[in-house]
Amino acid sequence: QKEVEQDPGPLSVPEGAIVSLNCTYSNSAFQYFMWYRQYSRKGPELLMYTYSSGNKEDGRFTAQVDKSSKYISLFIRDSQPSDSATYLCAMSYDTGRRALTFGSGTRLQVQP
Amino acid sequence: ETGVTQTPRHLVMGMTNKKSLKCEQHLGHNAMYWYKQSAKKPLELMFVYSLEERVENNSVPSRFSPECPNSSHLFLHLHTLQPEDSALYLCASSHNPGGGGELFFGEGSRLTVL
User: Fold this and answer.
1) Distance from CA of B72 to the nearest CA of A (A)
2) Chain B within 8 Å of A45 (Cβ-Cβ)?
3) A99 and chain B: CB distance < 8 Å anywhere?
C-alpha cells in the first residue's frame, strides 16, 4: 500500500465549476498537510498549508483535513482555466529530518 | 536571479556519459533537496542536505552522486545511467530540513537517457 494515494485524473470540468481534489494516507503520524500546484514544465509551488485537522480557506481555495479518516481535500470554487495544472498533496511528520511525502498528483483541466 | 534555479533544463545523455545537474538557491535557506519525478508516480526524495551536510539518502543507486559545496549550491553528478532514470529531476530548498516546512522548487531538469 502506498503511503499517500491520489487519483491521477485527468479531471476535466467547465469554467466556474467547483472542483474537489482528494488524497488518502495510511500513516497516522502525519501532522502537516500541503497542496502544491504544478503547471506544465514548471516546478511545484505551495498552494495551501494546514496543520492537523480542520479547514483553511484562502480566496477560492479551501483545504480540509480529516485525520480520523486519514483523508484530505482541496476545493476550488469558481474554477478558472488558469487553474489547469497538476495538484500534488504532500504531508510530513511533526519533527525530525524527514522531508515531504507526496501523492502522485491529479491533473486538472478547466475548460473555458 | 531569485528563487531556485536549475541548469540545464533539458539533458540527453547516453548510458556511458557523465554529466552533472546544477541547482542554486537565492533564498538564504539552510536545506536543499533532490527529488525525482516520473510520470504518474509520486515525487521521490533522493537526497537532503542541511548546512552542506548530507542528512538523508533514500537508497539511491550509486550512479547518482550529490555534492553540496555550500548552502546555496547543489549538484547531482550522473554516470552510467539507465533508461529508467529518465525523469524530471527537481531541486528544492527550505529554511530547515524538518517536517512541516515549505519547499521551494526549481523548474526541474528533464533528463533523457538513451
Assistant:
1) 18
2) yes
3) yes
* pLDDT tens digit sequence for B94-107: 887 665 578 899 99
The reply to whether residue A104 touches residue B50, judged by beta carbons under 8 angstroms, is: no
Name the residue facing A99 among B4, B97, B105 (closest C-beta). B97
Q: Which residues have C-beta within 8 Å of that of residue B68, sequence separation ≥ 6? A: B32, B49, B52, B53, B54, B74, B75
Q: Residue B114 is placed in which grid cell?
A: 538513451
CA angle, A46 then B4 then A64, to 5°: 5
| Beta carbons within 10 angstroms of residue B62's beta carbon | 7
pLDDT above 80 for A105: yes
Residues of A with CB below 8 A from B56's CB? Answer: 97-99
* Closest-CA residue of chain A to B39: A104
**What pLDDT digit, counting tens, does each position of A33-90 carry?**
999 999 998 999 999 998 888 899 999 999 999 999 999 999 999 999 999 999 999 9
Q: What is the pLDDT, as a whole number, of residue A97?
A: 54
Give the chain A residue nearest B42 (alpha carbons).
A104
Of B91, B89, B81, residue with least CA distance to B110: B89
| Residue A104 DSSP class | -
What's the CA angle centered on B102, arms A33 and B56, to 5 degrees?
A: 95
Residues of chain B with pLDDT under 70: 1, 97-100
What residues have CB less than 8 Å from B61, skipping those under 6 apart?
none
